[in-house]
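Feature request, filed as a ticket because there's no other form

It would be nice if the structure record came with a short human-readable summary line next to the tokens. Right now we just get the raw output. Example of a typical job, pasted below so the devs can see what we mean:
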Amino acid sequence: MALVRWDPWRDMLDLQREAQELFRRFFDEGPRATLATWTPAVEVFERDGDLVVRAELPGIDPDKDVEITVSDNVLRITGERRREHREEGDTYIRSEALYGRFEREILLPETADVDAIKASYDRGVLEVVVPKGARRESKRIPVQSGPLRKVLTARGRKK
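Raw output as currently delivered:
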């Protein structure tokens, strides 16, 4: 075992560096970043050939607080779980319920029929059914040969 000389100044500098890093992270990321955020649990599975997405959203009004969109074959579920109004006489000893905005994105298969997507909400569970559509076949584009047609330039003149 080797003897190591204790340097109290080095320990104080290490403590100062750790405190500075803690303050930097707190003020750079903000106090909300240090708090836990709520993200609903999601299940994605197939049922009868359709893709089914289930999200656990207890305590949410689906008409007001949930929005479902599809863009570029990505199903996006966004919303907010709002804090309930508390009565004047309520005193909480501990509250672990999380509130706030959330967003979940699910990549859809190319065969998804995005025009026929249906969503339902029952007992705190949102279910989105994405029917399988026809597979999009690749298409060959024929190349025409022969004299080139005169095309317009960017300024609207013929070449």
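Something like this underneath would help us a lot:
The chain has three helices and seven strands.
The two ends are 87 Å apart (CA to CA).
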